[in-house]
## 1
Amino acid sequence: MWFFVFAVVYSLRADLFGVRVRKLPQGEAAPSAPAAKPAPSPAKPAAAPRSRPGGPATTSTVSKLVITSGPKAGLEVPLGSEPMSIGRSSESGLVIRDDYTSSHHARLLLWGDQWMLQDLDSTNGTFLSGERVGAPVAVAIGAPIKVGATTFELRA
């Protein structure tokens, strides 16, 4: 019985306070899959993820993330070249506090010269232009991204 109580308390603690994420040294890429499987090179056209209509958003054209609906509507978050995590955790780059957002819900990252959206196995899913994101996908400028009750988009 004590094992069960400990397991419940541990699970609640991890959900409320998040999990410590270690920062990788400069130059290393974060694995999107198990460590045994190498990530595909962004230079290979056959391995490139599918993109959405309107063309992918490139580094030179995107400068900010704008929240269009939800509790933080109107907020503009500047984007650099570092990945931005999105979720309920206070460690996230964009913190969204609602019941439909996971602690570590999604991530926006620069892959080669284009911005990609990756769902981090969230419970309620991440949506790009109304379609649920399964694998990392290229994000077009102005395409609506929905996480929980919040919608945002990339803008120049």
## 2
Amino acid sequence: MTISRNGATLWQPLRDVRTMTPRLVGHFVDTVATCRTLPGDAIAGDVTAITRMCLELVSGLLDGRDEVEKLNRLAVAAGGWAREGVPIDTILHAFHEGFQLAFDAVFEDAAASDPSSLIDGFRRATAISDQLCTTVTRAYIREHRDIAGEHHTAVHTLTSALLAGQPTLTMARECGIAVAEAYSVLALSIREHPDEHDPRLNGAVVARRKLRRVQAELAHRCGEQVLSLLSVDGGTLLIPAELVAEERLDALIEALSRAARVDVMAALVPASTLEIPSAAQRAHELLDMVERLDCPPALYRFGDLALEYQLTRPGPGRARLGELLAPLESHPELYETLRVHIANNMNRQRTARLLHIHTNTVDYRLRRVAQLTGLDPTHASGLWQLRSAMIARSFHTGPSVVADPSGTRRPRSDAQRCPAPGLGGVRSA
């Protein structure tokens, strides 16, 4: 049904496609930033063709015709804009500018019109605007999700190849992702959010939302050049060395922790592209070690904990060190007192306060440790051996995490956690 105004068709200006098309295209060039940067052939071709099609579509909808084919063509065009990287806000701005100009032409002398016709006309104009913008937005978002999925797959494939030490030149070209000469290889551990264990909530959903916040923060700070394989528990990051300076990585880990709303612990090993597989393995070994030693959440570098790392390497030395604490196996209160005392830099008052015992009891228990082990924790030589023994013994309880070649981590259970702090990391308890 058409709406008449003084015997003429209210919508006649929009039906004059040949006149309205150049007016709208010229308006777009003047008001929409993206259009001002397009070459002349694109304006004369694509922009003009889409504008003409939209006018024909509006005319058909006003006449009550089925315009599914034209709506589908508009959706295809919107998908193309998403592929070309045209921002969605620019596209919708262009549509709203077009509708404003078009309906200004329709209602420019509306004062003499029948009020009921104007109200009905406004409702129909709003409905058509909604239909076109919804079609464009839905198609754009669908295509954008496909693009994001393709990029994610490309990143996953390339990252897996780098971690496996496979040739990546051809793969990088196919993925469209440049491979840097050197990377900061980071092993990440993301702690569980308390809400993951809330029976009123879906723990898997909470964990996925935590991961999405981490990924969004990573993309915000580092862009798309970072290669990552992450799960809800952690994983591996490959950050181009020239993208983020090493001294800024501590702030990055703190930002990821804030985004996740849980503690994030990381270990860093710089490497050239060819060294990535061995660097990733070492980074996860270092992360495993600092977790076993109950170090506070932070970014740890190999150089900071080289001594602890060496003490935890397999061999007869590690086994012998671990045996030094065997006499305390039947005295857990002595072992716990020694652990807390070392963690607090041998501060008797703080140890007593944390264990809810008297300082005299702390002294008594430390003397008992000396009697049972033959190593006196109040003397430098004995303390050194006891500390080393705790570090070595932390690896007698089985692996703290399981890390596959992709760097995906599964944290150990609380029963497996080692209570001893590392030499370089003092736990505040």
